[in-house]
Write a structure and sequence with these properties.
heterodimer, A: mainly beta, rod-shaped, B: five-stranded antiparallel sheet, 4 helices
């Protein structure tokens, strides 16, 4: 199965 | 105080229709440079950003930065009461707990105002760096909408691959497989009907079609859409909102566990 990472894994919290 | 006036309510109506299913609520951050929004869907695999620049408004005033928490379903209900050609003015006092929307008909014989209760929404801002993408594809937004809709009848995910041959969308499911390829095409006289593929290096990523379909709800906003792709990074699906700004949808690629 293929999963998806959360957006916070790609973009840092400010 | 905050006050922003748009000559056509249709723009805001279309924007909210494009967002409301993906993100149920979010903060309109208003500042002297305009209105912006960052919101994730409930599963956090996609992010919507909206930027409406102050100079795109007929009139824009913001004395103090504010975050206005908005339930988009409720905003949509109010905007349904505006005529497409109505002038719309958004107003709020500093630290207000409501946003006033005023609609004026074109010949100014009908004026209505609605107050939307604002919410307190905790949200984190993500820093989204400007970056170079492996492939940037501009295509008619109706074409994008058709492709993702057609492929949804065959499968749940789509492999998007950009090569010098074009951009290919592939899916497979119980009933079979489907491939749709768009080639770089600047033949149509109207720029809106052209497809531009700007390729730095070939790239292929897999995405959930459900989300790509959802992004296509922004199609009425503008005749062109831009897809930006880089390996292992979220795709960016961008719709320009005239001179006003843009809405961008980011979606995480599917990864093999």
């Amino acid at each position: 199965a293929a999963g998806q990472k959360s957006m916070t894994a790609f973009f840092q919290k400010k | 105080m905050f006050e922003a006036r748009l000559p056509q309510a249709a723009v805001l109506k279309k924007l909210v229709e494009a967002l409301k299913e993906l993100v149920t609520e979010g903060n309109f951050d208003v500042s002297p440079s305009g209105i912006s929004l960052q919101a994730m869907d409930s599963s956090h695999v996609c992010l919507v950003t909206l930027q409406l620049n102050d100079d795109g408004f007929e009139h824009f005033r913001c004395d103090r930065n504010m975050s206005m928490g908005i339930h988009f379903g409720n905003l949509s209900k109010i905007l349904k009461c505006a005529g497409n050609e109505d002038t719309i003015t958004l107003k709020a006092e500093d630290n207000a707990d409501q946003l006033t929307l005023m609609f004026e008909s074109a010949n100014q014989d009908r004026i209505s105002d609605f107050d939307l209760k604002l919410m307190s929404i905790e949200s984190e801002h993500l820093g989204i760096p400007d970056q170079d993408y492996s492939a940037e594809v501009k295509m008619p937004s109706a074409e994008y909408q058709r492709i993702v809709r057609d492929l949804t009848s065959m499968g749940d995910t789509v492999l998007v691959s950009a090569t010098k041959e074009g951009i290919k969308f592939s899916t497979s499911g119980d009933i079979g497989t489907a491939n749709i390829t768009l080639r770089h095409n600047t033949t149509p006289e109207k720029e809106d009907e052209q497809t531009h593929i700007d390729l730095k290096e070939p790239v292929a990523l897999t995405f959930a079609l459900r989300y790509l379909n959802n992004f296509a709800k922004a199609t009425p906003l503008t005749p062109q859409v831009k897809l930006s792709l880089t390996k292992d990074l979220p795709v960016v699906v961008e719709y320009k909102v005239g001179e006003l700004g843009q809405v961008r949808f980011f979606l995480a690629p599917k990864i093999d566990d």
